[in-house]
Amino acid sequence: MRRTSALIVLALAAASCGGGGASDTTSSTTTSATVTTTAPQSTTSTVEPSDTTPPIITVWGSLVVYSVDGVVSLSGTLDEPGRVSIPGAAISEETEFDWTADFERESGVHQVMVTAEDRAGNRSEVVVELTVDPDLELVFAYVTGFDGSTVTADYATFLTGEEASAAAREDGVIGVDETVPNDFYIRNDNPTLRELPVSEKAPVVLQTCFVDGPCVRQTAVTLEQWAGLLAEQAPGGLPGGWQWYGGGALPYWLTLQDGTVVHVAEQYLP
To answer: 164 with 265: CB under 8 angstroms?
Structure first.
């Protein structure tokens, strides 16, 4: 009995030490740890490129201007906020983009430099050619035709203020106690038509509207474009998304130098 007990004790001791034969079963537990590695973050700063583009200057009307008395008013716009300067001119900046310049020049031909500077200091310039001549003849007329070299003009008289109201009362258009609306009156009582030669360099300034922009603006067109518009007698047909305000029904101011038309400017009527 004692021998048997000793064998049992030895067997249990062997089992507890992991020994044994093929019939032994071993249990193990595995613990895994997850290690997270964070890579250093890089900070990327976006550097805005410096503004090196000069502003674009638009002068409403023509870059060729005529004046009898030398008193001139120019207006225009910039494509970005900026300041406009003209030597000897008083500048009125109506907005960050729109401007008006008033100045005087003596008789003669002048190169008027219009300078613009944006907020980044970029500058641009355009030149307006101004002719001041007291012998220029300024004629108000309706244009009934233009063949490319000669204009057919129906002269009229453009009156404002009390003179306009007095003429309208005299013509029986308004009553004795009335005044003309919009402070102007056009008297056209002479049916005579005149044929006037036109300089091939004469600019034509029309009253136009921009389809996606301002209305009404003075916009210069070529003689060829004007001839086409007069032939069509319809709004439209202008480049850059313009529309012709009035569609050919408005009168004009014709500037004559030695009997030849050197400048054509359409008169705005509300």
So the answer is: no
Tokens found for residue 76 = 């225009």
Task: Please state which CATH number belongs to domain 57-132.
Answer: 2.60.40.10
> Can you give the residue ranges of every domain in the chain?
57-132, 137-159+190-266
Q: How far apart are CA 238 and CA 208, in angstroms?
A: 9
More confident residue, 222 or 15: 222
Half-sphere exposure of 114 (CA within 13 A, CB side): 26
Structure tokens at 191: 């049916």
> Environment class of residue 99 by beta-carbon count within 10 Å: exposed (0-12), middle (13-18) or buried (19+)?
buried
Q: Which of 250, 253, 199, 243 is CA-nearest to residue 222? A: 199
**E strand or H helix at 7, and its extent?**
helix 2-16
Q: What's the CA gap between 135 and 261, in Å, rounded?
A: 13
Tokens representing 245?
Answer: 């305000």
- Which span out of 8-12, 17-21, 94-98, 197-201 was modeled with the highest average pLDDT? 197-201
pLDDT at 15: 42
Distance between CA atoms of residues 204 and 199, nearest Å: 11
Q: Which amino acid is at 21?
A: G
